[in-house]
Amino acid sequence: MRMALFQPDIAGNVGTILRLGACLGVAVDLIEPMGFAFGDRAMARAGMDYLAQAAVTRHADWAAFAAGVAGRIVLLTTRGATPLPAARFEPDDILLLGSESAGVPGFVHDRADLRVRVPMRSGARSLNVAVAGAIVLGEALRQTGWPAEALPPPDDAG
What pTM does this model have? Predict the structure, then answer.
């Protein structure tokens, strides 16, 4: 399981997702260009001291990312056809998040093997990209199995 961010605009969201990936043992792909300099203070502040533990791969553009895809691309989108409770995940899925300001272009939407939306109240436009990513990643890992390094040690006191 991996997470990928398509041309992210907000450094703090990238830092939050890198922290999420570091804590749960999930690699993160960053598809450039990004709307800020990598290592921006806001990204570092959101990621705190977890950034050094994050497995990050930067891709110059969509073509460079797509050339190395080995698994399904699961696009998280407000235009998704499959509500999260009905989605079925596979261990080698790549959960793809669009940029905060524009989402993803049509060619990326069309390339997705599965499009998933988090159900929300009527009238709500969208969740924060990092929040949506955490919700979907949690469900995907619940279905496919958490990475061993993310699991707590057995409770010997029990």
Answer: 0.88
